[in-house]
Amino acid sequence: MTPEKGERRFSDQKHAQGGWRTRRARGTGPVRAFANFLSYKRKGVHDLAADGSREWLVLDCGCGNGAYTSWFLQRCPCTILSLDWSIQALRTLSHPKKGKVFRMCADIQMLPIKSQRCDALFTIDTLGHVRDQRKAFDEMLRVLKANAPVFLHSECGNYKLRWPDTMLRRKLGYDYLAGIDGHISLPFHAELHRMLLRRFNVVKFFSPAGLLGWIIGYPEKYYLAFREAHCRIMQSVTAASALIKRLPILGACMRFVNTLSNRLELFLGIDGGGSCFAVLRTPGENPDTIGAGASTGNSEVVP
User: Fold this and answer.
1) Could you tell me the CATH number of the domain that includes residue 151?
2) Is residue 219 a part of any domain in this protein?
3) CA-to-CA dists, residue 213 to 24, 85, 226, 258, angstroms
4) What is the total count of domains within the chain?
5) Three-state DSSP class for 62?
6) What is the pLDDT of residues 219-243, one digit of tens each?
């Protein structure tokens, strides 16, 4: 089996088991505003949609079960190409109440879309599963019109430099968390920033450190890692935290505290965790040769 086929099968299995089922949040006014506050991902997709129009053709690269496609269409009822390489993921997409959705089974490293066809693009929780991120960025740039807006979330590898991940990797001899998430490409956030600057005009770029992520962000994942490493005390701590996270009120409070901690980290200049967020635009004129240094625009690192 080739690596690509193995990775596709991994994605299919995760979606079939419900492991990557992002909740399809709904709401307007205060409910939507609160959801945007809790999630940089939803906030980025919301802001992108706020500038859109019904005539837009938008590409969702790595749509999964369509949670962010749905979030976008609630704000901007346009046409979205929901693309994923997992058939299982695409089967979970539901027909939207607003706008139009066209499912597309494809690899974002080889987009089956004509050049300069899309008005906007967003990608969430996808690039860590891609072997050649440079090729994916080149393809995104190719299919977008000039001066098109982009919102991007990418997994990155800075978390490996901090405790408890340093301890877990030393004990296990490998990155257990990357394995259970299927991450095969985790550049540090500075390298990812450089890749984007070579192709896009980077308006904003930020990466919360996530210092408390192991206990209030993703305790269920760290529970598995501590169990694998036979760290009994930390296994018990994260098990209790994971249980609290599943409770309706206390879980919401935990997510709120996690959001506040991320915002405080960015305010204090403590960055470089497991996620990067970017607001981008394609250059004013698309280059004839993609990947040859499309843009050296300035960027602002912001909370």
Assistant:
1) 3.40.50.150
2) no
3) 23, 29, 14, 7
4) 1
5) coil
6) 999 999 999 999 999 999 999 999 9
> What pTM value is reported for the model?
0.89
Tokens of 209: 């450190």
Residue recorded with tokens 């909370």: 303
Q: What is the 3-state secondary structure (H, E, C) of 12-52?
A: HHHHHCCCCCCCCCCCCCHHHHHHHHHCHHHHHHHHHHHCC
Tell me how far CA of residue 135 lies from CA of 127, 130, 194, in angstroms. 11, 9, 14
Q: Please check whether residue 146 lies inside any domain of the structure.
A: yes
For 252-263, how does the pLDDT look when each residue is reduced to its tens digit (9 = 90+)?
999 999 999 999
Q: Amino acid letter at 93?
A: L
Q: Which residues pair with 96 in a beta bridge?
A: none
Asked if residue 62 lies in contact with residue 84, where contact means CB atoms within 8 angstroms, the answer is: yes
Residue 43 is assigned to a structural domain of this protein: yes
Tokens linked to 164:
């408890």
Owning domain of residue 62: 3-156+184-207+272-281
Residue 256 lies in a domain: no
